[in-house]
Design the sequence.
């Protein structure tokens, strides 16, 4: 991340020399390809096996340990070695994942960049449709994205679930106590529901409800967490909360990364406001940008956010005839939306584990 920020300081857009421009653009090609290799290494288990190896393996040993085909593993190791992500000893033919890389490329460390790299293939999967949208308008629907809910769940595991009990809940004074006593909770755009499940296990006296447009996500929630009687998932559109939910139904409503890609964000946030009881609270996580291109120049995840927005967040909203806020809508716009939706008090928080998002606590 620091490296990304550093790259943008080094590489200037103001009249670079031909050599500098060529170097930068070739670097982009190489690094884009390495991103695909990281995702493959994550999905096949190669990164995890390499990280856990007690002695550096050969390609054949790594393939055997991971249960994979040696010829493919050898080629993948080639990309990783020439990309200088894996150390290679040409004398012994052995490969080693440096500890610092292992820490950032497996689930054992604080952040798994390889899990995020899966977005590259997810986004590339809709390129043909998106080119059509650039030409003719409209959008690409959620249903077109291969593995979206699965990859989103891996993203959310890092930015939401891992910090939920220790960092997220304490932003709201007294919330853990109220959850312990027993309250009604709704997570709008809950995806596969992992955050809700963590809360349901921790706070058995509370009742947890998830709402998502995606049948696949809710099917997964129901199957994965069938042992949790206090957790239910429903398929529906948050712009009109399905009965019996309505005014003053909940003590806590959450949205994790689920407002900026709405078709009608004002209807959704107004609905959330109305669904809260008078002493209820709305807790929202959404992308933290300045809202201007100039203001985001040095954002450590700037190109990542704008790319995901172009190829997913913006277009899924437009596909439903929506406003198309885009992921880079910005903190000022988020705060204005909360005020326009009738929340009387809003506090904005930044959490150290989550460089991508701002967190909002809003009271009716
Ligand atoms: C970016 S994902 C976030 C998922 C989940 N909150 C997480 O953090 O893993 C946004 C989710 O909102 C859902 N969604 C979008 N618009 C919705 C709407 N109007 N009503 C209900 N769910 C919606 C999508 O299907 C998707 O699962």
Sequence:
């Amino acid at each position: 991340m620091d490296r990304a920020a550093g790259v943008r300081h080094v590489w200037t857009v103001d009249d670079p020399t031909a050599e500098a421009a060529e170097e930068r653009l070739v670097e982009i090609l190489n690094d884009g390809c390495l991103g695909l290799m990281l995702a493959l290494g994550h999905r096949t288990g190669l990164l995890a096996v390499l990280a856990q190896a007690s002695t550096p393996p050969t390609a054949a040993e790594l393939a055997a340990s991971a249960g994979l085909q040696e010829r493919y593993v050898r080629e993948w190791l080639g990309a990783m070695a020439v990309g200088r992500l894996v150390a290679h000893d040409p004398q012994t033919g052995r490969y080693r994942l440096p500890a610092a890389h292992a820490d950032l490329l497996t689930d054992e460390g604080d952040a798994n960049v390889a899990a995020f790299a899966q977005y590259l293939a997810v986004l590339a999967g809709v390129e043909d449709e998106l080119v059509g949208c650039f030409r003719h308008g409209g959008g690409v629907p959620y249903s077109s994205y291969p593995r979206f809910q699965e990859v989103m769940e891996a993203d959310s595991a890092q930015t939401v679930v891992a910090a939920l009990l220790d960092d997220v809940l304490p932003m709201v004074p007294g919330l853990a106590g109220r959850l312990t006593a027993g309250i009604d909770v709704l997570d709008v755009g809950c995806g596969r529901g992992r955050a809700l499940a963590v809360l349901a296990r921790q706070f058995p006296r509370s009742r947890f409800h998830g709402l998502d447009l995606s049948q696949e996500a809710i099917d997964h929630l129901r199957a994965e967490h069938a042992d949790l009687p206090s957790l239910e998932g429903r398929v529906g559109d948050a712009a009109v909360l399905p009965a019996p939910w309505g005014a003053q139904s909940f003590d806590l409503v959450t949205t994790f990364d689920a407002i900026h890609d709405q078709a009608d964000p004002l209807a959704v946030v107004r609905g959330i406001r109305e669904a809260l009881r008078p002493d209820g609270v709305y807790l929202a996580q959404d992308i933290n940008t300045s809202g201007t291109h100039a203001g985001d120049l040095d954002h450590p995840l700037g190109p990542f956010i704008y790319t995901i927005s172009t190829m997913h967040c913006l277009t899924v909203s437009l596909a439903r005839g929506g406003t198309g806020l885009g992921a880079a809508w910005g903190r000022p716009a988020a705060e204005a939306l909360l005020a326009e939706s009738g929340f009387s008090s809003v506090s904005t928080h930044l959490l150290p584990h989550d460089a991508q998002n701002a967190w909002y606590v809003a009271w009716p």
